[in-house]
Amino acid sequence: MMTYIVFILSVIFVVSFVGFSSKPSPIYGGLVLIVSGGVGCGIIMNFGGSFLGLMVFLIYLGGMLVVFGYTTAMATEQYPEVWVSNTTVMGVFLLGLLMEVMLVLYVLKSEEVGVVFKFSGMGDWAIYDTGDSGVFSEEIMGVAALYSYGAWVVIVTGWSLFVGVLVILEVTRGD
Amino acid sequence: MNPLIFTTILMTVLLGTMIVMMSSHWLMIWIGFEMNLLAIIPILMKKYNPRTMEASTKYFLTQATASMLLMMAIIINLMHSGQWTITKVFNPTASIIMTSALAMKLGLTPFHFWVPEVTQGISLTSGLILLTWQKLAPMSILYQISPSINLNILLTMAVLSILVGGWGGLNQTQLRKIMAYSSIAHMGWMTAVLAYNPTLTMLNMLIYIMMTLTMFMLFIHSSSTTTLSLSHTWNKTPLTTTLILITLLSMGGLPPLSGFMPKWMIIQELTKNNSIILPTLMAIMALLNLYFYMRLTYSTSLTMFPSTNNMKMKWQFETKRITFLPPLIVMSSLLLPLTPMLSILD
């Protein structure tokens, strides 16, 4: 099972995405978002990115999703929608689950899957330790490169975040 | 809006488009599109009524979907080519998805439904920015990936856009919707020649922007958003009726005005590439566009449009100062004799 852990984690990832795309109330959407964040962290960690996985937990789940949860709790209604309360939501959720199950069976059964991109069988999902990646871990060097060679990206993303705050304040200001 | 904040947000719109046009890394291009989208939302919502909010929401939803499709195409391209540089997109799937995403951003058929509704819901100045500046970024990306775009899809979208832009504008009396359908049709002309000679796309874009700027500024000057209101300009500033006449006929593509130049060059380029039926159809469908421009000139400049006697005098607001209107009018009507200068683009 450990060889195919990435495959299992991606299936859980997709299922939790289906869970919040079927639009229950935002509180329950946030719940499956936590699950999907944790599973996504697992996927990244399996590729050797322990720092980035920790970032997902700390910043995404522990910062952004907490704020989202608080604001949703302030704006929630008395009987929020669950997946089983509304026929439409349950129908979409089951449809998404069905499609994912069929895709998983297709991957497990056949040797080569070519939907948008090709991968041949289950072997492609396993992580191979492809030998020497040197003394330093690749993903830490990537983060270091972001702040040295990628200074322009930091400037652009920083400015986008700043303008995002300005935009949100302008939009919600009213008259 | 606080002027400092407004300037910051407007500069961010400019910065977003600049980042899209000047980046060589696909991710930065996507970031540029998102920055552009984020910053233009409060500009679209300058007045706080439900119509502008609905229009801004529609714009945000369609452009965000297009950005998501663009990101998917970028990742498929990454998977198949292993690099992030913007060049030809070698994988056909990625190319088709990217073309669809950029068509959604431009407002080409079959993704044109948001253009009239969004343009109608916002103020004239915001509509001006929407229909001119926002077209620059997606068109620049289309220019850069033009060698690898699937010709069938591109030409189908172009011809359908010209058809929809002409036909859809026939039943309109609201000026902003007329300009929106005109934009759809012009985008169709621009993308039709993209695979054959992308320089002409840029030429058409340049002349289209000049003409649309002129039209919008004339509308802003006479504070009119409906045909009826525009037909009273003879009362307020009679000179603008002549200018509206000239600019509208230029938009319709009539020689000897400068609007004829891109159409002529495009038809010539298409026939050089042995496609005869296509430019014939395009030229015939441009007549639909010309019809509703002519209807506008008929009601504005050529006749004194019937109205009740107490509506004939237009309320005189303080005259708005329109930047660069005289040079724009000259450029959007008198550039045709300069066509031989296009040879410098070789």
From TrEMBL, chain A:
<dbReference type="GO" id="GO:0008137">
    <property type="term" value="F:NADH dehydrogenase (ubiquinone) activity"/>
</dbReference>
<protein>
    <recommendedName>
        <fullName>NADH-ubiquinone oxidoreductase chain 6</fullName>
        <ecNumber>7.1.1.2</ecNumber>
    </recommendedName>
</protein>
<dbReference type="InterPro" id="IPR042106">
    <property type="entry name" value="Nuo/plastoQ_OxRdtase_6_NuoJ"/>
</dbReference>
<feature type="transmembrane region" description="Helical">
    <location>
        <begin position="51"/>
        <end position="71"/>
    </location>
</feature>
<dbReference type="Pfam" id="PF00499">
    <property type="entry name" value="Oxidored_q3"/>
</dbReference>
<keyword id="KW-0830">Ubiquinone</keyword>
<keyword id="KW-0472">Membrane</keyword>
<dbReference type="InterPro" id="IPR050269">
    <property type="entry name" value="ComplexI_Subunit6"/>
</dbReference>
<feature type="transmembrane region" description="Helical">
    <location>
        <begin position="5"/>
        <end position="21"/>
    </location>
</feature>
<feature type="transmembrane region" description="Helical">
    <location>
        <begin position="83"/>
        <end position="108"/>
    </location>
</feature>
<keyword id="KW-1278">Translocase</keyword>
<dbReference type="InterPro" id="IPR001457">
    <property type="entry name" value="NADH_UbQ/plastoQ_OxRdtase_su6"/>
</dbReference>
<keyword id="KW-1133">Transmembrane helix</keyword>
<comment type="similarity">
    <text>Belongs to the complex I subunit 6 family.</text>
</comment>
<keyword id="KW-0679">Respiratory chain</keyword>
<keyword id="KW-0249">Electron transport</keyword>
<keyword id="KW-0496">Mitochondrion</keyword>
<keyword id="KW-0813">Transport</keyword>
<feature type="transmembrane region" description="Helical">
    <location>
        <begin position="146"/>
        <end position="169"/>
    </location>
</feature>
<keyword id="KW-0520">NAD</keyword>
<feature type="transmembrane region" description="Helical">
    <location>
        <begin position="27"/>
        <end position="44"/>
    </location>
</feature>
<comment type="function">
    <text>Core subunit of the mitochondrial membrane respiratory chain NADH dehydrogenase (Complex I) which catalyzes electron transfer from NADH through the respiratory chain, using ubiquinone as an electron acceptor. Essential for the catalytic activity and assembly of complex I.</text>
</comment>
TrEMBL record, chain B:
<feature type="domain" description="NADH dehydrogenase subunit 2 C-terminal">
    <location>
        <begin position="290"/>
        <end position="342"/>
    </location>
</feature>
<comment type="subunit">
    <text>Core subunit of respiratory chain NADH dehydrogenase (Complex I) which is composed of 45 different subunits. Interacts with TMEM242.</text>
</comment>
<dbReference type="InterPro" id="IPR010933">
    <property type="entry name" value="NADH_DH_su2_C"/>
</dbReference>
<protein>
    <recommendedName>
        <fullName>NADH-ubiquinone oxidoreductase chain 2</fullName>
        <ecNumber>7.1.1.2</ecNumber>
    </recommendedName>
</protein>
<feature type="transmembrane region" description="Helical">
    <location>
        <begin position="57"/>
        <end position="76"/>
    </location>
</feature>
<feature type="transmembrane region" description="Helical">
    <location>
        <begin position="202"/>
        <end position="220"/>
    </location>
</feature>
<keyword id="KW-0249">Electron transport</keyword>
<keyword id="KW-0999">Mitochondrion inner membrane</keyword>
<dbReference type="GO" id="GO:0005743">
    <property type="term" value="C:mitochondrial inner membrane"/>
</dbReference>
<feature type="domain" description="NADH:quinone oxidoreductase/Mrp antiporter transmembrane">
    <location>
        <begin position="23"/>
        <end position="285"/>
    </location>
</feature>
<keyword id="KW-1133">Transmembrane helix</keyword>
<comment type="function">
    <text>Core subunit of the mitochondrial membrane respiratory chain NADH dehydrogenase (Complex I) which catalyzes electron transfer from NADH through the respiratory chain, using ubiquinone as an electron acceptor. Essential for the catalytic activity and assembly of complex I.</text>
</comment>
<dbReference type="Pfam" id="PF00361">
    <property type="entry name" value="Proton_antipo_M"/>
</dbReference>
<keyword id="KW-1278">Translocase</keyword>
<comment type="similarity">
    <text>Belongs to the complex I subunit 2 family.</text>
</comment>
<feature type="transmembrane region" description="Helical">
    <location>
        <begin position="241"/>
        <end position="261"/>
    </location>
</feature>
<dbReference type="InterPro" id="IPR001750">
    <property type="entry name" value="ND/Mrp_TM"/>
</dbReference>
<keyword id="KW-0830">Ubiquinone</keyword>
<keyword id="KW-0679">Respiratory chain</keyword>
<keyword id="KW-0813">Transport</keyword>
<keyword id="KW-0496">Mitochondrion</keyword>
<dbReference type="GO" id="GO:0006120">
    <property type="term" value="P:mitochondrial electron transport, NADH to ubiquinone"/>
</dbReference>
